[in-house]
Design brief:
The protein is α/β, with parallel strands linked by helices. The protein has 18 helices and eight strands. The strands form two sheets. It has a six-stranded mixed beta sheet with strand order 2-3-4-5-1-6, sandwiched between helices. Strands 7-8 form a two-stranded antiparallel ribbon.
Length: about 400
């Protein structure tokens, strides 16, 4: 039976074939640059669909695939049958114990915004091929990879019911409804989830596990996960940010079951350069520009090597450039995006830029002098439009209505 289960999953990929399957580059036509302002701003969301696989993506795919193989190999073995009997005892309120174990469970820890969740989702889609493993005789239905999120309050019961609800959604079963109707203890519910996991889940991915840290329910959830790992026999992947490490290290029994992958910000290497160049190619401003080494250095410095921040910077810069009429993606518009759209991140990102930056302006009216042209208070958008129509220098025009402060970073 185990070999038949393994025949139902796609073969393991590697090399260029895996890279191509992981890559997602949405269609882009340069004619979009000639469209109206609204159309171009709406099309900017395409930037968030771009996915360029990294070494992390390949490692996560391999980890998930091997974990699935190991889980399927355990199903319907003698140990699995004995564990099923123990789980049944737990469901009806009798004492039970874990037999099958789960030493092949793992963790994936990394900074927020580096692409962990995207890499996991893409790996799951390839590993599972968006299909359920099914047999008619005997009747078997297994979800290769099931992904749930840790509740914000680290509630044990909420976590267990969430797993059952996800299974119901895939298999059209009623496990969560039955569990909610009955007055069952947490131990009984763990036994039920363990039994359902053995029968219907290949690997279980629990995202946002850092919600356990600092929560009064965190210790209880950690203890529950340890028990679930021992009683279900499936591989369980725990996904979280670096603060989760303190939780794992505090419980040896969980730490040894959750050894896995750890990632930090990207290095300024060939992958980061390629990522920036591909993103920069998706331009929706009217005046196309080319990326330079200076821009790549600036992007790394102002993103701290976090890919999500790079995307936000390029998206924000183009949105501002389009809405103000500046219509260029360059260091000037990028710097404006960093100052205006990423203010909440300034406490976490500390640029060490040594290159000369374009003029940075503050939106405040001069107190010492009145506007030279008229008493009308112009907006920056209006000035940008005037600059374009009258072929005037945009910065010089700004100086007539705003106090300009030149800064060299």
């Amino acid at each position: 039976m185990n070999s038949n289960l393994l025949d139902k999953i796609p073969p393991m990929l590697s090399g260029e074939e895996l890279y191509n399957r992981l890559t997602d580059l949405p269609e882009y036509n340069r004619s979009i640059q000639t469209k109206n302002q609204t159309e171009r701003i709406l099309s900017l969301s395409t930037l968030y669909d771009i996915y360029l696989p990294s070494e992390m993506s390949v490692e996560i795919y391999s980890k998930l695939y091997l974990a699935l193989v190991r889980s399927l190999q355990k199903k319907y073995t003698k140990a699995a049958i004995q564990q099923s009997y123990q789980n049944h005892n737990s469901i009806i309120g009798r004492e039970s114990r874990g037999i099958i174990g789960g030493s092949d469970s793992f963790s994936i820890i990394g900074r927020s915004g580096i692409g962990k969740t995207s890499a996991i989702n893409r790996a799951i889609s390839i590993v599972s091929n968006h299909q359920i493993i099914e047999f008619d005789k005997p009747a078997i239905r297994i979800i290769p990879c099931l992904k749930v999120e840790c509740p914000w309050d680290a509630s044990v019961k909420s976590m267990l019911l969430s797993i059952l609800r996800e299974v119901d959604q895939y298999l059209e079963t009623t496990y969560s409804i039955n569990a909610s109707k009955k007055r069952i203890t947490t131990d009984m519910l763990i036994g039920m989830v363990a039994q359902v996991s053995m029968q219907h889940i290949g690997i279980l991915i629990i995202d946002e596990i850092q919600n356990c840290v600092g929560s009064r329910n965190g210790r209880g959830l950690v203890a529950m996960l340890t028990q679930l790992i021992n009683s279900s026999g499936i591989s369980i992947g725990l996904i979280g940010t670096p603060e989760t490490l303190s939780l794992f290290e505090s419980a040896f029994q969980l730490a040894r079951r959750s050894l896995g992958l750890q990632y930090n910000s990207l290095k300024k290497d060939s992958y980061f350069n390629s990522f920036c160049k591909i993103l920069f190619g998706y331009q929706y401003v009217k005046n196309r520009t080319e990326i330079t080494p200076q821009i790549i250095d600036w992007l790394y410095d102002h993103s701290d090597g976090i890919t999500a921040v790079v995307v936000s910077l390029i998206h924000g810069a183009q949105e501002l450039a389009i809405s103000t009429g500046y219509e260029k993606l360059d260091l000037y518009s990028l710097n404006q995006a960093y100052e205006e759209r990423l203010q909440l991140l300034h406490g976490y990102i500390h640029p060490q830029t040594t290159i000369s930056q374009p003029v940075k302006f503050k939106r405040k009216q001069s107190i010492t002098s009145k506007p030279k042209r008229t008493e009308h208070l112009y907006t920056i958008s209006e000035l940008a439009k005037q600059s374009k129509e009258e072929d005037l220098d945009f910065i010089e025009l700004l100086k007539e209505y705003f106090t300009i402060e030149e800064i060299k970073l």
